[in-house]
Amino acid sequence: TTARQLCETLVRRTRALQDHSWALVELHQHLALERCLEDHESVVEVQSSWPPGADSRFVFRKNFAKYELFKSNASLFPEVMVSSCLEANKSMAHSELIQNFLNSGSCPEVQGFLQLREAGRKVWKRFYFSLRRSGLYYSTKGTSKDPRHLQYFADLTESNIYYVTQGKKLYGTPTEFGFCIKPHKVRSGVKGLKLLCSEDEQSRSCWMAAFRLFKVGPSTAEVLPVPSVSDNALVAMDFSGCTGRVIENPSEVLTVALEEAQAWRGGGASLPRVGVPTPAPDAQFPAAIHRTQPWFHGRISREDTQQLIGRQGLVDGEEEGRLYFTMDDGQTRFADLIQLVEFHQINRGILPCKLRHYCTCVAL
Questions:
Q1: Domain Ras-associating spans what residues (predicted)?
Q2: Would you state the CATH architecture of domain 74-83+91-219?
Q3: What are φ and ψ of residue 230, in 5° steps?
């Protein structure tokens, strides 16, 4: 069973909303390491490499950056970190140069400073690294690329790349942007791990993307197509009356949209609101319903929040330059929050109940 097949099975069994962001994550808690399995990887083979009795497991969760590498490549490779962009044809745009690399089935040569933890010690030193077809190297003399000054560091074809989740606590990393090269032959313990640390999130993302391309290649990576927005996913609403309604007749949609636009430009008033009844004194409303939501984590620190967001991918909510609001991972989309709220006042949708009462914003 591949990681992709297992994710599809888990989506069906848990009755989760089907999309392409679900991923299988390999987690080694005792080493504070984790990585997202590629779609084609065998789950049993990965598990068989774990040492007996180790605190290792698979986690089924969303990773919104899972396919970003194959959709918006240029943004992941800053010009300053790509050798060819600095040395090659200046008449070619940076994004075009990166795309040429990917179309040819190769990975651009990435370079930059990284902090390296010396083997057997807790001391970190800063070196200039270069990723080439033959492997990962670092310079023993500043930023020199002279072969005499390049020290071979790791064979990525025989290793896996992991994010370090508790780098400062466990390894004393200089920043929070640590990652690790773990050779296949290393089964347990810290010995044999090649620990590295970037200066910021952007540079770490670039290194991780380059390592991933180096291992699987853009031509062999199995990429799912991005689901298109169907007519059923876009909801047309009419708020001209005292209560809103869903427009089911497609020919009526344009007429209503034009009428609302004219009313908006002419009067400058807010869109008509759906009438909301005053709650009865004994009305029972689940005040803690937010605690049941997957996005609710309770009292956590800023550092924990950054790690959670980083693990699921630093991607925004825009698609094709458009911003939309959604509560069901893009299955139903709204142009603004007013439409989203008023739709769920009329239709329950994915919510446990319809929205009935609003909490007025007051100055405290």
A1: 1-65
A2: Roll (2.30)
A3: -85, 170
